Amino acid sequence: MRLLPLAAEPFTAPAERDMLPSERREFVRTHRTCVLGYRRRNDGPAMSIVYYVPTDEDELLVSTMAGRAKANAVARDPKVSICVLDERWPFSFLQVYADAVVERDPDLIVDVMMAVGWRMSGQQAGVEARPFIRQMAEREDRVVIRCRPYATFATPPRHLHANEQATQLTHWGSSSLPWNGPDPVAR
User: Which Pfam families has this protein been placed in (predicted)?
Assistant: First the structure.
């Protein structure tokens, strides 16, 4: 498994139609922030805005502390939702449904923390930063939540650019599609 680098440009969702399955995967691979949703014992679902790191095996990795609610919830119940956020106008998002596990591999934890730092700062840290990141990971008792997507739900980026609802604002339905679903064959 290889962590994907920070994308130079995030995928832009089409505004005139639903995203194809391949476009949904590209949207996830090229963005960096999401709302991670997980079940709580009581009350409604919990949600945390986090940076995530995609892999070449289409997993999404999230760094957190072992004592945080995210890690504890995943240990209890592996079903999570990931709402990948577009950072550009017009805003869109893509819901990803995934099975998650908590990983404690020290090298993976450091790799993910370095990749998250790259996504946060826009600058990749050099190998000389690894010992400091490793110390931080140990001090904070860091873990990685490994999310394996199985389905997606897209929402189109449809917004008003002027107060012309009658002519500009249209919507269409979307549906949940399998993560590895094929694109429809063009006719």
Answer: PNPOx_N
Q: Please give the tally of structural domains in the chain.
A: 1
**Residue 78 within a domain:** yes
Q: Decide: 46 and 54 in contact? Cβ < 8 Å.
A: no
**CA pair distance 119, 76, nearest whole angstrom:** 29
Two tokens, residue 36: 């991670």
Q: What is the pLDDT of residue 157?
A: 61
Q: Can you give the pTM of this predicted structure? A: 0.91
Tell me the pLDDT band of 106, cut-offs 50, 70 and 90: very high
Residue 92: CB atoms within 10 A of its CB come to: 22
State the Cα–Cα distance between residues 110 and 137, nearest whole angstrom: 7
SS3 state at 79: strand
Residue 139: which domain range? 21-154
